[in-house]
Amino acid sequence: VKLKQGLKSAMAISSDGNAYLQESQFWRLYKEDPATCAIVMKTSVGVVYLLSCLLEPFMPSFSREVLHQLNMSPDEDLSFCDDKGETAKAKRPWDFVSAGHKIGKPVPLFKELKDEQVEAFRIKFAGSQAERILKEQAEAEAKKVAEKLKGTKLSEGSSKKKQSGGSKSKTAEEVSVAKLDIRVGLIRKAEKHPDADSLYVEEIDVGEEAPRTVVSGLVKFIPLEEMQNRKVCVLCNLKPVAMRGIKSHAMVLAASNEDHTKVELVEPPESAAVGERVTFAGFSGEPEASLNAKSKTWEKLSADLHSNGELVACYKDVPFTTSAGVCKVKTIANGEIR
């Protein structure tokens, strides 16, 4: 079942038919040589009929519409069977549709897609089918969680209003995961720290003019060759910190098991765009330029970062989400993410 080859053959016939129609200059023949023009038209209609039959397994709705416009029954298909001695007629496309047949009203079969529609389809169908299904499930689950949280906040808010005379609570704002600037990054280069055996120094593209230098304590867990040219999730708004003489300007997120003997990187989908922000359904807002160390925002939020039983990276029960799907780890289920 060579599906791609079948489609490729059909499209080649389509290209040949289009070239034949254009090169014959039927508009000129219509005025100067009506008899030859009739042959060109009859042959072209035959090629269209042939294409509707060849493309029916791939685009049945397209084929039904073509046959409707040709005023032909979808129950009758062209046949070129060797056993029935029908292959010779394949060389005579002008005989596929009988003379005198009246076609239906022709209308355009396809409409032009605008740029925003193309982008919407690209996002909708990015990644594998399995990733898209997982993303839809995650979004549905996240929506449920968001609705539940919304109800909880409303009830909590009304009780606090009674107790404090309507004073605002800053707790929800302070712990919103939307404050984290987590992006899809691409490790361009990784090498061992010259002055620390347990540290890597990476150059990571996070969608800015220049890559960021990041220092990670992953030497004991991930081989150097596996750190090269791979996509990772990067926390970009931690305050830069010097680690054994080299300043780290971000943090690569990784999951660990219970006893911290195994560590794996949190990986976005392969088709996720470099620099794209990782989002959490139900939590909106812009990230802080730099996380406030005094308020311990990162410490509070990181306590709820983990991988679930399906290996999906989550904040509480809400997946790390990109336009191409959710972020995952390879094998560590129910591990903490830092």
UniProtKB/TrEMBL annotation:
One GO CC annotation: cytosol
Region (Disordered): 153-172
Reactions accelerated catalytically: tRNA(Met) + L-methionine + ATP = L-methionyl-tRNA(Met) + AMP + diphosphate
GO molecular function: ATP binding; methionine-tRNA ligase activity; tRNA binding
GO biological process, one term: methionyl-tRNA aminoacylation
Name of one Pfam family that matches: Anticodon_3
Alphabetical keyword list: Cytoplasm, Protein biosynthesis, RNA-binding, tRNA-binding
Location of the protein in the cell: Cytoplasm
Name of the protein this chain belongs to: tRNA-binding domain-containing protein
Native species: Aegilops tauschii subsp. strangulata
Lineage: Eukaryota, Viridiplantae, Streptophyta, Embryophyta, Tracheophyta
